[in-house]
Amino acid sequence: MSDDPFTLFDTWYAQARESEPNDPNAVALATADSDGRPSVRMVLLKGHGPDGFVIYSNRESRKAGDLAANPQAALLFHWKSLRRQVRIEGAVMLASDAESDAYFASRGRDSQLGAWASDQSRPLDSRETFEARFADVAARFEGGDVPRPPHWGGYRVVPSRIEFWQDRAHRLHERRLFVRDKDSWNEGLFFP
Fold it and tell me: Which of 24, 125, 126, 147 is deepest in the core (most CB within 10 A)?
């Protein structure tokens, strides 16, 4: 096994993409508001590397409010088919506008339109209201490119801790923890 957490993540992630039946990039994102109240939801990982793990969202959503007030987060990948999980904790920073623009341009048109139509995490009186807003946005951008909304972009979780958990027989699981120490990583094992 690798002693570099990013190389190990790359290996496990590649195996998950081959074995998971749905969304191997699905990850639970845990945040806490300014009062410490936690919240968790599933999001999709859209980029990763030594500089961090990237997700995208409406920057006026509840998660965005949590991250603005408390720019720390935890991620949890659970790949049931592999009987593995990866836990990541760290500081959160905004992805660059260029990075957010590039990813937004790669999305399907309806997903782009949905980003304009949705007031994510706010009350909605009826499904019809949302569908009408979607139709209005589709008409507005008909025949042209859909630009990234100013309230939408990426977040990068810069890890300070990465734990790899592997299921083993008789609950004798394996837990490898990597903890960042400035520009290097310290590694250790934990009891399951």
Answer: 24
SS3 63: helix
Asked if 120 and 57 touch (Cβ cutoff 8 Å), the reply is: yes
Segments of 10-83 assigned E as strands: 26-32, 38-44, 47-49, 52-58, 72-79
What domain range is 70 assigned to? 5-96+151-190
The tens digit of pLDDT for each residue in 146-188 reads 999 999 999 999 999 999 999 988 888 999 999 999 889 999 9
- Name the residue among 59, 88, 85 with its Cα closest to residue 72: 88
Residue 42 lies in a domain: yes
Q: What is the dihedral of CA 170, 13, 77, 159, to 10 degrees?
A: 110
- SS3 at position 143: coil
Q: Is residue 17 part of a domain?
A: yes
Coil/strand/helix, residue 16: helix
pLDDT over 80 (residue 2): no
Token code pair at residue 103: 């990813």
Does the annotation mark 176 as catalytic?
no
Catalytic option among 41, 156, 171, 176: 171
